[in-house]
Every structure is written in structure tokens, then in C-alpha cells.
Fold this sequence. Notes:
By secondary structure, the protein is mainly α. Helices cover 78% and strands 0% of the residues. The protein contains 3 helices and no strands. Helix 2 (35-49) packs across helix 3 (53-68). The longest helix is centred in the N-terminal third of the chain and has 23 residues, at 9-31.
Amino acid sequence: MTESHDPTPDAWALRDRDLIATAKGIVMLRENIDADRAVQRLLELSTQRRITVQELAAEIVASTYNETV
């Protein structure tokens, strides 16, 4: 019997949650706003760009990584 290493739906959900939390923190720092406003900002931006919050969060985190490399 081979063991599968594919993430479970719960693992994906946790990863997405962590990614969004990281993006929220980045938005808070960049825009000098509180956590509630940062969540609102993420929702606004994802709606405007017609992408999921998860996709937006990934872009924000990736852009921060690119800034520091």
C-alpha cells in the first residue's frame, strides 16, 4: 500500500488561512490600517480584480518576497 502525500481539504484550508493572515498583516503594515480594515481592503481588492481572496493573498505575499530578495 502506497502512502499519499496529497494535502487533505483541511490542510488546504489551513494553508489558505495562513496565507490570508500573512497578506492581511502585509496590508496592515503597507497601509497603516487595523486588522478589520485590512480584511475589508482584501475583500474590496479581490472583488475589483475579480479574483479570489486566496489568489490576491498569494500575490501580495509573493510581491513582498520579491521586494526583499
